[in-house]
Amino acid sequence: MCSRRQFDIFGEEKYFLLNCTETPYSVANASSVDVVVYQSQTLLDTSSLTAFHHLRGLTVIGGLESLTVLPAPMVTLQTLTISGTAMSYLPDHALFSLSSNLLFVSLADNQLEFISRDAFTKLITVQTLDLSGNMLHRIHGGLFYSLINLQRLDLSHNQLYSVSSSNFLGLNNLIELNLDSNDIHHLDGIDLPRNGADIFVRDNPLLDVLWDSRSSIGTLDMSGHHIKQLKRGSFLGGSINTLNISGSQSIELIDDDVFINTTIGNLIMSGNDRLRYVSPRSLRLIRSLNYLNISVNSQLEVIPESLSSAPGLKIFSFRNNDLLCDCNLYWLKLRQSQDASGSELDFLDEHGNISCSDGRSRNLDSLTVSAECAPQLMYNSTTNITVEEGASLTLMCKVSSQYTSLYHCSHPCGTTVPCTQ
């Protein structure tokens, strides 16, 4: 028996909810139906839907244990959603047997563990494929090769432990790849043919990254990773418009030369609660950096001056870090007083102050150079030197300090020279 209700929502479209235990169905004005929500016990019998001559969307909720489709192609069908089922396996050609004109396919929130190598063969019209919320551990290389018009692929909330470029061969029109909330521990470079594609790998237990790619990526979002230390050469090539490595509870160190011959437009490293050290040489080999954000890193007490001169940098934001407000920041005071050209610095709170590690906020003008910042003399000779009048004398000033740019050495003639490290 079938019970049906008709809904008028989203304007003029008509939706039917069918709860059926018997087939075939008899529905008045069936040719005008746009979407059918169909509950089945074990299999999808499409022959029972032949009354719907202009069916554009089909939603199957619950019941299915496997996608066994009895042949009755629906050539007008463009949208297919199957969710909340016990389906664990997707066989060859099952979707194509439903319709050869599908544009949107969602198999989200089922129990899929395995997808046959030819499950998506011939589905050349599909533009969006959602496989999120399943139990997939791995995917075949070339699984999506036939989906030549696919633009969005969602594999989030599965159990994938690794991915590579071979998994996405043939996706020449892909503009968004979602790999959020999987079990990916290591991330290699992913080559996608279309320039500007976005890749999301958020909230994965990433332990390391070796990004060596030839692709031009729009956004690579790795926020919520578990990497403790970004090592030298973590990024070895390619182009990324926006790289997000924020929101980690694990990262502590960023080493020298993390980015080698990599073009990055916007680099966001904010909200990393354990980040305590960024090497002054971490960005020296990066290419064309436009925007750098290392704000809201509660344990990052020192901001190296060299970061502000990364190649191409225009805006450098480091708000809301609890900084050591001593000579470590004196370069900022010099920079402002000299009105130096270079990147725009965004580091003051709403009151125009700097957040300091002692819990107080200070005005930049109040910063002074304290005695403990002074360089230590490495060699102090007490030997008397006799020089004939008119002869030349060379004096060497050898000091050790990370703040040598703040000091000058005076010689007997009364002039000063910079102290070199």
Question: What distinguishing features does this structure have?
Answer:
elongated, 25% strand, 16-stranded mixed β-sheet, 3% helix, mainly beta, 421 residues, 31 strands, 3-stranded parallel β-sheet
Helical segment tally? 2
Strand order of the largest sheet: 1-2-3-5-7-9-11-12-13-15-17-19-21-23-24-25
How many beta-strand runs? 31
Q: Report the portion of residues in β strands.
A: 25-35%
- What is the global morphology? elongated
Main pleated sheet: 16 strands, mixed
Question: Structural class from helices and strands?
Answer: mainly beta
Low-confidence stretches: 1-29
Which bin fits the share of residues in helices?
Answer: under 10%
Distance between the termini: 88 Å
User: Rg, please?
Assistant: 31 Å
Mean pLDDT: 81
Structural notes for this entry:
This protein is mainly beta. It is built from 2 helices and 31 strands. The strands form 8 sheets. The chain has a 16-stranded mixed sheet, with no helix packed on it. The protein has a 3-stranded parallel sheet with strand order 18-20-22, with no helix packed on it. Strand 24, helix 2 and strand 25 form a beta-alpha-beta unit. The protein is elongated. The N terminus is likely disordered.
